[in-house]
From TrEMBL:
Name by which UniProt lists this protein: Precorrin-2 C20-methyltransferase /cobalt-factor II C20-methyltransferase
Family: Belongs to the precorrin methyltransferase family.
Top-rank taxon, per record: Bacteria
A Pfam entry, by short name: TP_methylase
Pathway of action: Cofactor biosynthesis; adenosylcobalamin biosynthesis
InterPro entries from the UniProt entry: 4pyrrol_Mease (IPR000878), 4pyrrol_Methylase_sf (IPR035996), 4pyrrole_Mease_sub1 (IPR014777), 4pyrrole_Mease_sub2 (IPR014776), CobI/CbiL (IPR012382), CobI/CbiL/CobIJ_dom (IPR006364)
CDD domains in the cross-refs: Precorrin_2_C20_MT (cd11645)
Alphabetical UniProt keywords: Cobalamin biosynthesis, Methyltransferase, S-adenosyl-L-methionine, Transferase
GO biological process: cobalamin biosynthetic process; methylation
GO-annotated molecular function: precorrin-2 C20-methyltransferase activity
Domain Tetrapyrrole methylase: 4-211
Length: 237
């Protein structure tokens, strides 16, 4: 009998934000898959969840490189999917850890699609997103009344970014490190330089909260950074 795959969102950084269901599954998982960007890196997701993983579990750290070369990506995906499928074929309960929520800009989505197509049994356990945690840390409502909210990965397609700024009341900006200076420039152009908050490494020991636009313009912004923009100016800082 084939095993079951669990996609588990471990939240942005604080281990206390894991759901009770995630903790229960980790306590019984036979294999725990921990994605990381480079071979020499430690898995951030594993660090968050480690205390809840049963001692007998086999921990596999798999590399999912953060590169734009499609051939390289697909090669790693195929190899990693094969490793996970092999464990499932042996009847193992397999937990795949992912930062934030598994179904929001996550490596897990590629695994999910491939293994669903191969008819494996899969259950996805939601996790706290980076922007939910950021809003809570800043005591900043994401949306009020009939306000709209847009989730925007910071990309190079200027027209999409411009449209989001023009049409949404509030914005969550992810992948900020791709172009922090460009984001700062747009905030100044829109007169929103005092209407945002950025949290880097939310829930980690070196967490940083800032409302100073110079931190976007002058500092190296960590990859794990989220910006919330309130165009109505309700920045509770």
């Amino acid at each position: 009998m084939k095993g079951k795959l669990y996609g588990i969102g471990v939240g942005p950084g604080d281990p206390d934000l894991l759901t009770l269901k995630a903790v229960k599954i980790l306590a019984n998982a036979d294999v725990v898959i921990c994605p990381k960007g480079k071979q020499e890196e430690d898995s951030i997701a594993l660090k968050i969840a480690r205390e809840h993983i049963q001692p007998a579990a086999e921990i596999k750290a798999l590399v999912f490189p953060m590169v734009y070369c499609q051939e390289t990506l697909e090669s790693h995906w195929r190899e990693n999917i094969s490793i996970i499928a092999d464990a499932l074929d042996k009847g193992k309960k397999v937990a795949f850890l992912t930062l934030g929520d598994p179904l929001l800009y996550s490596t897990y989505i590629y695994i999910l699609k491939a293994l669903m197509a191969a008819d494996y049994t899969i259950e996805t356990i939601p996790g706290v997103t980076s922007f939910s945690a950021t809003a809570s840390r800043a005591n900043l409502p994401l949306a009020e009344g009939d306000e709209t909210l847009t989730i925007l990965p910071l990309i190079k397609e200027e027209e999409r970014v411009k449209k989001a700024f023009d049409t949404s009341d509030n914005l969550v900006v992810l992948k900020v490190s791709h172009d922090p200076k460009g984001l700062a420039k747009r905030l100044r152009e829109k007169g929103l330089q005092n209407s945002f908050v950025m949290i880097s490494k939310c829930g980690h020991e070196d967490e940083k909260i800032t409302r100073d636009i110079r931190d976007l313009e002058e500092e190296k912004v960590p990859y794990l950074s989220t910006v919330i923009i309130k165009k109505g100016g309700h920045n509770h800082g």
